Amino acid sequence: MKIYTKTGDKGTTALFGGTRVPKHHLRIDCYGTIDELNSYIGLIKDIQTTQNLKKELVRIQTDLFTLGAMLATPNEMKKLKNGKERLNISKINETSITFLENRIDEMNNYLTPMTHFILPGGNKIVSFCHIARCVCRRSERLTVALNDEENIHDSILKYLNRLSDYLFVLARKLSKDLGAEEVKWIPEKL
To answer: pTM of the prediction?
Structure first.
């Protein structure tokens, strides 16, 4: 596969199905931010040493590629002329969301209950989890904005919402595993 096509040299790109849009189009921003998130999760995966977490993060990265493909396919291009689906892959669904919820619950059972907001940081991998969480929240906000323009599948919005929660709880779990201090945010009183 050739890396450069020169078709985007004038500031447009093709969606799945061939429709060309400006590279600043909201849909492109949505799945571009998903790509950024996926890269941060790859970084977390490369820092973390346990095989179980690596497998878990690869599953999430795979889900994010699927989610990006779903976002790259506008509603009017979802079906071929013969009625078959253009995007012939498994989609993000309740199973994907339930996986995240189960992992959140399992990790939370291991942690002490939160009594305050927590300042991001304490360890490099924990900080990267918080950065990924913030990028995930941004991707969620962008996707909600796109959903205001055209209907996005509910599972995409749910998945992004759960993933940001997962990344927060993962940061807390890694803090505990690594003996990193969780610094509580305690606002000063005037």
So the answer is: 0.89
Structure confidence by residue, pLDDT tens digits, 116-162: 899 999 999 999 999 999 999 999 999 999 999 998 999 999 999 99
Query: Helix or strand or coil: residue 178?
Result: helix
Strand pairing report for 12-14 and 20-22: antiparallel
What tokens were used for 20? 């060309």
Residue corresponding to tokens 């992004």: 160
H or E segment at 14? strand 12-14
Cβ neighbours of residue 148 closer than 8 Å, sequence gap 6 or more: none
Tell which CATH classification among 1.10.730.10, 1.20.1250.20, 1.20.1200.10, 3.40.50.2300 matches the domain 19-73+89-109+116-181: 1.20.1200.10
